[in-house]
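Format notes (please read before filing issues)

Several people have asked whether sequences and structure tokens are stored in separate files. They are not. Every record keeps both together, in the order shown below: the sequence lines, then the token lines. Line labels are part of the format and must not be stripped during preprocessing.
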Amino acid sequence: MKLLTVTVPCYNSENYMEKCIDSLLVGGTDVEIIIVDDGSTDRTAEIADRYQAEHPEIIRVIHKANGGHGSAVNAGIDAATGLYFKVVDSDDWVREVAFRKILTTLEELAGGETRVDLLISNFVYNKVGEKRHKVMHYRRMFPVEEIFTWKEVGHLPKTRYLLMHSCIYRTRLLRDCGLRLPEHTFYVDNLYVFNPLPFVRNMYYLDVNFYYYYIGRHDQSVNQEVMISRLDQQVRVNKLMVDYYVENYGMIRSIPQRAHYMFNYLEVITAISSILMIVSGNPEHLEARKELLTYIRKKDMLLYLRLRFSIEGVYIYLPGKGGRQITLLGYKLMQRIYNFN
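Then the structure lines:
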């Protein structure tokens, strides 16, 4: 069994996938790299097969019909032989020194008495045109370099939540919790870092800048204009998160720190959906905004009230044109402070 499986979902990635894969090869034979060619129409399949031929002891390639990012991650989870599992997108890369530290830590944890379900590390927003790149770290949230549970988690600010880039799960946990990401849908990484959490008991945080998250392609899914064009998929994921939260609330609430974090994360995703609909200004999107809130209210009235009348919610869900203008001003201010797309 390998120590770590890294799945690299690829769709028409010929221009940047080599940098990603080369950064992963430094892990050597402790690492299994699964390149998932998700129905690409460029040279992605050819490049993937070449890497497999050159590194057969490390790299495996899966060629499949196009099913989207979630489908590619599902294929990686199904095929993984590693004790732990990581997703690295084909336009991102990892830092060698941090990678070696992570592998050493995973090896130590694998031989320990306490089973660790989730290893957390920092990631870096590598934004085009920026000389200084923002590091997302968790020093005030989690104990550093020690095994901890949800009960040892510190203050969880809404500006410091886990993303796919910061998570390495135990592979068996992903299978046992039944994680299946929807196909042909963007933004499923939110489900990837949300749904397994009720099953996560023991965690470990390494304060190393491991994952470099590239931001700058005009067609990238996190580009604001692209997100607005795909609002239906953002809303679909938002609703799936609401469904999961409501259906599993009995388990989620059993640990207050976990319940607090998961509510905050759901609140952030719902706020993003709402704000993007306002930014769009499209009457259909404004109607969809009302429909999303109605959906949440029908699903769980208490959850709706908590979201609607939280501190952020008071400003995000203000009624009428004037209310939307206030929300937009707040959104632009947050863009300047946090430098997101």
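For reference, the curators noted about this record: The chain has a mean pLDDT of 89. Residues 4-215 form a domain with the Spore Coat Polysaccharide Biosynthesis Protein SpsA; Chain A fold (CATH 3.90.550.10).
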